[in-house]
Amino acid sequence: MTEQATGAHHPQPRPRSGGQSAPEHVTGAQSLIRSLEEVGADTVFGIPGGAILPAYDPLMDSTRVRHVLVRHEQGAGHAATGYAQATGRVGVCMATSGPGATNLVTPIADAHMDSVPLVAITGQVASKAIGTDAFQEADIVGITMPITKHNFLVTKAEDIPRVIAQAFHIASTGRPGPVLVDIAKDALQAKTTFSWPPAMDLPGYRPVTKPHAKQIREGAKLITAAKRPVLYVGGGVIKARATAELKVLAELTGAPVTTTLMGLGAFPDSHPQHVGMPGMHGAVTAVTALQKADLIVALGTRFDDRVTGKLDSFAPHAKIVHADIDPAEIGKNRAADVPIVGDAREVIADLIQAVQREHSEGQRGDYSAWWKDLNRWRETYPLGYEQPENGQLSPQQVIERIGRLAPEGTIFAAGVGQHQMWAAHYITYDKPATWLNSGGAGTMGYAVPAAMGAKAGAPDQTVWAIDGDGCFQMTNQELTTCALNNIPIKVAVINNGALGMVRQWQTLFYNQRYSNTVLHSGPDDVNPDARGTRVPDFVKLSEAMGCYAIRCESADDLDKVIEEANSINDRPVVIDFIVHEDAMVWPMVAAGTSNDEIMAARDVRPDFGDSEDD
Residue 289, SS3? Predict the structure, then answer.
């Protein structure tokens, strides 16, 4: 079965050799590097250590695989994810056994939640020592079983080419995801032969990509019969490279489109049919459209709790058409009236034809009253923010200006928290694969290494990391990696001196008791004579890691500083934006409550005039 037939979203480049190559006498380690070359891996992020060391020797001789020596294995994992999200190819990271492997657990879990094609290669203690609590032994296969799409333990050198080929195939086809390959040290050291391609043996792995024609017809009938439909679009549409088809379907139907946090860029933000991002911090119009819809067409999305709010009150009047490559997602959180299993690109292409047939038979939806409501909500409750009265920088304004001044095709990677939501709202995403973030896991520290991976994979595009001062202090050591490997990313540290999103919750729900969310306690508080001292001083820290660094505290300097950062491309740039600490993310649906209880701003509950709508 070809990759096309099994629905590869982003197949790796084809092996360069034609037909079966002649067997080469090699070590298992050499076989591993040759296998990576043949599957088309061009970049590996990793750190050597005892168990994986045999693989690093032949890696030094490879002219086709670039290795980027990171400062922490978590950085390697997130960099591989950023590479995969920016390029659509499989990201690769490598670590040694024990703590090296366990440091990959967070990025593997992150990739699993966000369906990112990733192959993590780890060294393991010698096969005879497995299970003896040997030095630097950890059962990484057992540890990662719940957070990988599949994983392998390799104890025989001859199995390495087949396992690598299978790992890349599994990671990149069907619903993408992370695959772990754990290789015992003696398998890397043993003599074997290498030939390519190996025979793959995956008898139970047959992703369904072609949707069922009857379900497509039923979905199209519901679309044309609906009065208040919404196209609810997730990251699966980007992974399937179905954004062009989505635009055709949206314009054909005339229905409003809402794109999730993972789906930003799947449909142009600037398109008149785009009503915003749904969810806990979604646009009022998007959240309300889903609540009041009579039909939701869910494409490559999973009815996540951050979108639905209190599940039993979500979209109470809506029928559901749910299309996903993974049958396990359909009906998991919300029962589907029309379940469609298939690749999003094929599903949407077939829906276009089915809707066109409905139109040709005189069945065409009339959404004029619906758009009247949507436009009224859009005009009454637009996204917005207030400037701080004390003259400090507004974090929303900082992020908005970075977006406006960024060169065409810029990729934005965000950490997790307030700055992530502001980056989702105040930067316009009109193209896929220009917004990278940790959606499902919400991993602080994601932005800097993910931006590094994206820039390594797409060196001709500008890459901005929008980070918070809390996130930045988790993984900023990878700026050293960027400086030493000619990976000139740009980092905006939105520095409010606090764990901002947690502080917002403490403001709203914990009577402003700020327990352990202040990050800058230090000389300012201990010694009044040392006011102005920053711990850490991000400018000095960034300069020490080989970056060009600037501090910005005034709106008057904002554009000049951003343009200076955009003009520097020979090293990483870090800007420490000192912003107002009390800025909050609005709109907001409090955790565990119904989306009907959305607040447009603090103490501002939208009035939808339900009596006249219904």
Answer: helix
What number of helices (H) and strands (E) belong to the chain?
A: 25, 19
pLDDT at residue number 130: 98
Closest CA to 102 of 60, 138, 62: 138
Which residue has tokens 């679009």? 233
Tokens at residue 291, please? 């609540």
Q: pLDDT band at 6, cuts 50/70/90?
A: very low
CA distance 347 to 208: 11
Q: What are phi and psi of 288, to 5 degrees?
A: -70, -35
Each residue of 566-610: pLDDT tens digit?
Answer: 999 999 999 999 999 999 999 999 999 999 999 999 889 998 866
Residue 233 token pair: 């679009």
Bridge partners of residue 218, in order along the sequence: none
Closest CA to 338 of 208, 214, 175: 214
At 79, is the secondary structure helix, strand, or coil? helix
Residue 604 structure tokens: 């501002």
Residues, the chain: 614
- Which residues are annotated as catalytic? 73, 135-136, 185, 501
Contacts of 512 (CB under 8 A, 6+ apart): 506
Taken in order 385, 390, 391, 393, the sign of the CA dihedral is: negative
Q: What is residue 71's three-state secondary structure?
A: coil
Q: Say if residues 435 and 420 touch (Cβ distance below 8 Å).
A: no
Rounded to a whole number, what is the distance in angstroms from the first to the last CA of the chain? 52
Peptide bond into 48 cis (omega under 30): no
**What's the 3-state SS for 331-397?**
CCCCCCCEEEECCHHHHHHHHHHHHHHHHHCCCCCCCHHHHHHHHHHHHHCCCCCCCCCCCCECHHH
In the block, which residue shows the tokens 């002219």?
63
Q: Which two tokens stand for residue 392?
A: 């400090």
Quick one: average pLDDT of 30-46? 98
Task: Characterise 131 by phi-psi region: left (phi > 0), alpha (psi -120 to 50), beta (else).
Answer: left
Calculate Rg over the CA atoms of the chain: 25
